[in-house]
Amino acid sequence: MRVLVSGGAGYIGSHTVLALVAAGHDVVVVDDFSNAKPTVVGRLEALTGRHIPVHAFDLTDIDKTEHLFATDTIDAVIHFAGYKAVGESVQKPLDYYQNNLGSTFSLVRAMQKHDVDKLVFSSSATVYGTDQAGATEDRPTFATNPYGWTKVMQEQILRDIAVADPEMRIALLRYFNPVGAHPSGTIGEDPSDVPNNLMPYIAQVAVGRREKLQVFGDDYDTPDGTGVRDYIHVEDLAAGHVAALEKLAVTDEPISTWNLGSGRGTSVLELLHAFEKAVGRELPYEVVGRRAGDVATSYADPSKANAELGWSTQKTVEEMCADTWRWQSQNPDGYPD
Ligand code: WQD
Predict the structure, then answer these.
(1) Which residue of 208, 247, 257, 305 is most buried, as measured by CB atoms within 10 A?
(2) pLDDT digits over 77-103, tens only?
(3) How far apart are CA 264 and CA 302, in angstroms?
């Protein structure tokens, strides 16, 4: 299929572009580069040995979005594009609602106008609110921050669209904690500012860009007191997107929801120690107070995706750390401008 990947220059999007090409699909990327560097495209072309068509514009621009569908032959869309920083969303709610919902409105309208019926939507475990332990897809969704609400609302909007237009084939993919990098070490996670997330922060400590890791609380009701999360290698996550896309080509369901996670929890200190093994030395950290909004434990029940997509995670936490370290040590300052 010829697949439009929105946010395809981003962390998860770029890894999914590689997986799509490897599975024999054609790819077109649209990205506004608000949270990605153009350098990624050259890295993707070097890894695939193919030209990757890229359109650089804001998806909330409905005319540009419709023009893309009018001038290219798109069979399916994988929609990653969106703002995703929880803390920033609390400070700038209108930007988050306008951008995240507006880009989805624009995309789906263009899809309907051009009879494109397959959409894979990047959702998040954050829609489980504070009830993220052993989460199954039938749990009610709610959020504790504007970013999370944009995901809850987009899921609801897409469910309503599927009722109104049962010819649509939509997959809602709820990611847990994506980490890791392509084993080549040439693409990876490159936060534009101080990393909010644990793995890139540890990687920047290891490469000398940050002094030490701050562990946000060790008084949670977990085995070692630190937060437990379901880390999923971005390569496994990309494979899950290809599996979901190919499922849409054969299913009779207008809309399906799948958790993409390992089903296993790893604590902050366990991840830190696994990373130390990858680096071969101890890394400095300091336990500080809890971060507002954090839950103690979050991990998926991935059995629905395992059964219906024939997909499961393959990579270990050690591989997640080794691949992250290879990317970070080969690119100490991330992607060049
Ligand atoms: C993981 C654990 C922290 C940083 C977030 C978003 C979620 C999703 C995935 C988009 C927690 C601890 C972290 C640090 C720390 N994003 N931590 N020191 O919060 O589970 O999920 O990213 O969909 O929406 O909320 O991931 O990596 O920020 O935190 O101790 O410097 O690491 O307390 O226990 P989180 P995270």
Answers:
(1) 305
(2) 999 999 999 999 999 999 999 999 999
(3) 10
What would the pLDDT profile of 120-158 be if each residue is shown by its tens digit?
999 999 999 998 999 999 999 999 999 999 999 999 999
Query: Is residue 307 packed enough to be buried (19+ CB in 10 Å), middle (13-18) or exposed (0-12)?
Result: exposed
Helices (H), the chain: 11-22, 39-48, 62-71, 86-91, 93-96, 102-113, 146-164, 198-206, 234-248, 268-279, 303-309, 317-330
Tell me the domain boundaries of the chain.
2-179+231-260, 198-229+263-330
Could you tell me the pLDDT band of residue 216, with boundaries at 50, 70 and 90? very high
Q: How many whole angstroms from 92 Cα to the centroid of ligand 1?
A: 19
Query: Does 147 qualify as catalytic in the annotation?
Result: yes
Determine which residue's CA is closest to atom 36 belonging to ligand 1.
197
Query: Active-site residue among 128, 147, 220, 299?
Result: 147
CATH of 2-179+231-260, one of 3.40.50.1240, 3.20.20.80, 1.10.510.10, 3.40.50.720: 3.40.50.720
Confirm or reject: Cβ of 144 under 6 Å from ligand 1.
Answer: no
Residue 297 · residue 265 · CB < 8 Å: yes
Query: Would you tell me which CATH number, out of the four given (3.40.50.300, 3.90.470.20, 3.20.20.70, 3.90.25.10), belongs to the domain 198-229+263-330?
Result: 3.90.25.10
Give pLDDT, residue 116: 98
Is the distance from the beta carbon of residue 98 to the nearest atom of ligand 1 less than 6 Å?
A: no
Residue percentage of the chain with pLDDT more than 70: 100
Binding site membership of 294 for ligand 1 (Cβ less than 6 Å): yes
Q: In the structure, what pLDDT confidence band is assigned to residue 24 with cuts at 50, 70 and 90?
A: very high
Instruction: Quote the mean pLDDT of the chain.
Output: 97
198 Cα: distance to centroid of ligand 1 (angstroms): 6
222 lines ligand 1 (CB under 6 A): no
pTM over 0.85, yes/no: yes
Q: What spacing in Å lies between the alpha carbon of 39 and ligand 1's midpoint?
A: 26
Identity of the amino acid at 33:
F
